[in-house]
Amino acid sequence: MSETRPDHDPETAPTLPDREAVWARLLQEVASLPALPGVYRYFDAQGQVLYVGKARDLKRRVSSYFHRNHGGARIGHMVTKIHRMETTVVRSEAEALLLENNLIKTLNPRFNILFRDDKSYPYLKIASHEFPRMAYYRGAVDRKHRYFGPFPNAWAVKETIQLLQKVFQIRTCEDSVYNHRTRPCLLFQIKRCSGPCVGLISEEAYRGDVAQAERFLLGEPEAVMADLQARMMAYAERLEYEKAAEIRNQISALSTVLHQQSVDTVMDKDVDVLAVKVSGGRACVNLAMVRGGRHLGDRAHFPVHVQDHVLAPDDAETPETDQPPAALSAEEMTHATEVRVLEAFLAQHYLGGGVPALLILSHAVSPELIQALGDQAGRKITVVHQPREQRRVWLEMAIKGADLSLARLLSEEGSQQARTRALVDALELDLDLDAREAGLESNASSDGESSDAAEVAVDAATKAPTVRHDPLAGLRIECFDISHTAGEATQASCVVYEGHKMQPSQYRRYNINGITPGDDYAAMKQALERRYSATGLKAARLPDIVLIDGGKGQVAMAREVFTALGLPLSSIVGVEKGEGRKVGLEELVFADGRPKMQLPPSSAALMLVAQIRDEAHRFAITGMRAKRASVRTSGSRLEDIPGVGPKRRAKLLQRFGGVRGVAQASVDELASVEGISHDLAEEIYRALR
């Protein structure tokens, strides 16, 4: 594997580079590329990665970006931004695929299709133990234990655990609980556990039940049923009718489950079914999982950057689109994009491992990709994209799920955009939307460079159809709320709404200290000062709207803070509860002197305000409860201090109003309590610090 890295330091590059010189340098570098497999990366003038791609022939593929009429705004826009490139030569196309996927995950390039799923898939874990336990598990697997899955969601795991409890009565309690039981728990009483904690089942019999459960999870329900029937008949022949009745009940429960699983099959054990749908500039890949012959449900994945990813030049090199992109019909372009999205998902999802032996796909994909998946998995991967019988039923279910999930996403995004527009109109915000929209549209061709330079970079980009951007996508709203319990564990929350959706990664919590307990005005003032001071903002920009959960008092406090910081008062909007504090009767209070405003209960603008405010309230409540629990947990160490019995503890709590007050008291204050000596006061003081 060899790598070329042009001699370039983006930090020393001029602010407005000579585009003609850059273009000439790039063409020279392209001409010197080898006709070998490899991976290429494009960077802008600031050193930010734009795109990562693979190629069977580096010279041919990279040349296509610089010598073709791309016929689309997306690729033309990207090419105008290329300032330098890097290439890596590898031994085979499979190696190129692996390297491309690793770089995409590491670099998060702006113009690649990216699947971001921050939740790992859950497993059913059977922990190694003298009497193994079943458990829900999410995370890295450990060879010490046995894992079954992955499952599409937590519900599927928990449903399976309940099933195995009913049929095989495997324990689910933690080892710490198991080791200290002296009598059977409720699960034993309701026939969900065989009671190994108190010796009500032998180790041999229990391990037999575990083995049967594992066989069931591995897709052998018929064999499990036959074994249970044989055991029942053996007990009956020995006149052990109670044990035979227990086995009969297990058979009955297992039969019910198998009957309910109408999509079961015995032939296919572990299968993943994937269907892709592209519409409205968004894409959905729906992944359905079959494990042990049981259909466990599905999960929809929505990649980013698809709306900018119409058709790249390398698509023209694939066998099914052996013509320039401009000659393709809209239906063919959609199909090619769907194939691209599906291949991106397969690479990013499976190249890290966990691919089953059979994949059922809605579209045919690159054989090289499947070969790379098989090479990494160490076994042959079978792919079917025109299934029959039961497999066809599975695929149709997955396609229907993709259609419904994408339609729901587009509907939600459309309604959110309408709500954003309604709020801007209702508040009559002067955001200069026409200028903002014009700037966004012109950015695709100029991006800080002259139009002449852009034409030099790529003539096709200037002929591309105009892509209309949403000018309100950049509207930023921040909302604050204060939460505490009788002055204890006061926290302020700040949530962010941008791009027509909440942005949880930008949420912030502020622990409020140094105020009178219960003073919401002072708490709000402290939170706003910390948020909008020069130190608090850092790289973040000022929001267009600052929502305050409260009325005149909170808004007056916000006005004071903004005036001191020199910030515009027009952005402050208080959300005051209306008459009777009923939902839908809220009034908006302004800091710049405008009169109160009451929006109709059915107003889309009020719905958005309520959505953001409720999220701020939820975020504040969860933070406050966690902080309060932490304080109380640390305070519970009073019970562990030698010399502090129930009577002295009660006197301390009564005197200082709770464990928090005790923790904040000085040694002299503690010693003033009846029954607390100075030495004991020092001991309490040290223990609670």
Could you characterize what this model shows?
It is a single chain. The protein is 45% helix and 16% strand. Mean pLDDT is 77; it is low at 5-16, 260-266, 310-326, 433-468 and 631-635. The protein is flat and about 75 Å long. The strands form four sheets. Strands 13, 14, 15, 16, 17, 18 and 19 form a seven-stranded mixed beta sheet that branches. Strands 10-9-8-11-12 form a five-stranded mixed beta sheet. It has a four-stranded antiparallel beta sheet with strand order 1-4-2-3. It folds into five domains: 2-107, GIY-YIG endonuclease, CATH 3.40.1440.10; 123-260, no CATH class; 271-407, Nucleotidyltransferase, domain 5, CATH 3.30.420; 475-631, Nucleotidyltransferase, domain 5 (2-Layer Sandwich), CATH 3.30.420; 641-687, 5' to 3' exonuclease, C-terminal subdomain (DNA polymerase, domain 1). The chain has 24 helices and 19 strands. The chain is of the alpha+beta class. Helix 9 packs antiparallel against helix 10 (241-260), helix 13 (389-427) packs across helix 20 and helix 17 (520-532) packs parallel to helix 19 (552-565).
